[in-house]
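Many introductory courses stop at the sequence. We go one step further.
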Amino acid sequence: MTERNLEGRVAVVTGAARNIGREIALRLASEGAAIVVNTLSSVGEAEGVAEEIRSAGGKATVVQGDVSSEEGAAAIVSGALDAFGRIDCLVNNAAVRRETPFAELSFQEWREVLSIILDGAFLMSKAAQPALSKSDNAAIINIGGMSAHTGAANRAHVVTAKTGLVGLTRALAHDLASDGITVNCVVPGMIGTVRGRSAAAEPSHHAVHNPLVGRRGKPSEIAALVEFLASPDARYITGQTIHANGGVFMP
C-alpha cells in the first residue's frame, strides 16, 4: 500500500463549509492531510465536514474566523498551529459571488466583496507565510473565477476581486519562491453548486457559455486539481492560472 500524497501534512481551507471548499477539504483529507475547516458563520456545516473527515479516519478541526481582517486571519492561522503544529497548504477559497447592477452597486458592497475575496487571500497568505516557509512541500492555492477572464454583467465587484487574485498569484510566486512556497490559481468554470441566499440561483453569465464536454463540472473535479497542486508532484508549478471549465473558455 503506497503512502498517500499528503500524509503528515496540514491544510487550511477557507470557506470550507460547503460546495467547492467542502470538496477540497475532503479530497485533501483523503490524501492524508489534516484539515483546518474554516468558516465565517456556517459553523454547523463546517462541523459536518470535519466530522465526515474524522469518520473516515482523518484529522480535522473547525476554526471560525473572518479572513477579511488581520485579526481574523491571524486567529485562523493560530488555530491551525494550535491544533496541528504546522501548515503545509493554504487554500484561499472564501468568497461571495453576488450579482448587482453597477448603477445599484454601493461602495460598501464593493468593499465587502473585495475584502473577502482579495484582501482575504492577501491576509491569509501573509499570516500563514512564516509557517509555510518551514514546510518542504508548501503551497498556496487561490480559487479564482471564470468571469474574471470572460467578464460578466452585474459582477463588477466579483470580477475585479477575482482578477486581482491572478495578479496576487503571480506576485506571490515571485516573492515566496525563496521560501520554497509555490503559489497557483485554480479557475473553476460552470460548477454545479448550491448557492447561498445572497447569490443568484444561477449566475446570469452562465447562460452565454456552453462547455464542450456537454455538462457542468463537479466540485470534486476542482478539488482533484487543487490536491495535485498541493502534492509533491507539483513542485515545479508556480505562478500559474489553471482553468478547469470543460472547454467553455480557452485562454
